[in-house]
Amino acid sequence: MSYATLKHYIDGQWVEPTGGREQDVVNPATNQPIGRLGLASRADLDKAIAAAERGFRQWRSVSAFERGKILRKAAELVRARAEEIATILTQEQGKVIAEARLEVLSAADIIDWFAGEGQRAYGRLIPARADGVRNMVILEPIGPVAGFAPWNFPVTQAVRKIAAALAAGCSIILKCPEETPGSPIGLVGCFHDAGVPAGVINLVYGVPAEISEYLIPHPSIRKVSFTGSVSVGKHLNALAASHMKRATMELGGHAPVLVFDDADVAHAAKLMAAFKYRNAGQVCVSPTRFFVHEKVYDNFVADFTGIASGLKVGAGLDPTTNMGPLANPRRVNAMEAFVADAEEKGARIATGGSRVGNEGNFFQPTVLTDIPENARVLSEEPFGPLALMLRFKDTDEVLSRANALPFGLASYAFTKNGNTATKVADALESGMVTINHFGIALPETPFGGVKDSGFGHEGGIEGLQVYMQAKFVSHMG
């Protein structure tokens, strides 16, 4: 099965980067190379910046109505090419093909939504204090954007930045993950073929620190959008702040799940197990810390463990696979270290806990119980297929424990009591809370966190507004 042709996209052209540096792209199901990716030089970045400047001047003058038409054409092309892009995505990232298809089709929905929202980005009139005065607030695109997307969802995380920036009238230089370059290339190809003018989108790959430390301080870049780890996000945000650049930071999480004694236990276990092991747990909003009321704890753990133990682990292109490999050997080593530390401190493995086979980066869907508070996995985001089961007795107690970490991205709760649901929604220190279902990450809803999980949003009207700035104009006569 063929893999993608790997090139950079600069000023409307697919180009080979200069400088001569390359690296392998590896299939995580086999750990064998499937392609070679060239890495950008400083000269390549200069070309991308110059193109983004020209592209911005042209694109901002295109009406929001016409921009929306081009974006919708791109969405149509993404849907038409979904199988091709999804296959490339699974080859390079590992997730099961059904999840890859869903990711690509979700990307098309995101483009469609921002196409429409960009056409409704209104300013406002402010009543004046004097006759003949008109006070106006005008929303303008902020300027060329530097975007940084991660490897766990290389299509949807890239498209959130591209679609929002373009809908607002901005141009963008997007640094996508070197581990998963082919699927973003397929995505950007849809925008190219839809008629986005040269320079409006530029796609580069390279040494992450080199690219970020050159693009972010550059005077042409007016906005930074980063999705990734807390440690890297803090570094990039400090760099952006030192140059007065507006930034959106979508960082890590360690999502709590609160299952109360009146919950539909079977429903909660089935839903949360599906989302726990989606993308092998490599999801920033993955449910991880399961706080279960002591009255239903045994039933929930039994149901959840039964589902986890029945999942088939294997290559993502096998249609019978339920969970694919982790992204790289480092993630497998990290899972082993978390499990060993927890076991050493007294935790029990209800299921899983080990790598699978000698080829690829496979790890068993894992459930840990009786976990002591000093286990590393309770305070460090595992970013893998580990579910942590914890008992609780009291609502105030569990809210305090759920909020104890510096993360605040997503939280989940299950209860049939309206008062409990309201209390939980109000008390959880989280950018997103969903109760009795999985209701986050839709194009029309804001996606973002608080505390160390970042700030700003992708999705919803908030996800468009971060690419725009308000100008006040007061006119007499």
Describe the structure.
It is a single chain. It is built from 14 helices and 20 strands. It is an alpha/beta fold and 477 residues long. It is 38% helix and 21% strand. It is globular. It has a 7-stranded mixed beta sheet with strand order 14-15-16-13-12-17-18, sandwiched between helices. A 6-stranded mixed beta sheet has the order 9-8-7-10-11-19, with helices on both faces. Strands 5-6-20 form a 3-stranded antiparallel beta sheet, with no helix packed on it. The chain folds into 2 domains: 8-251 and 454-476, Aldehyde Dehydrogenase, Chain A, domain 1, CATH 3.40.605; 255-442, 3-Layer(aba) Sandwich (Aldehyde Dehydrogenase, Chain A, domain 2).
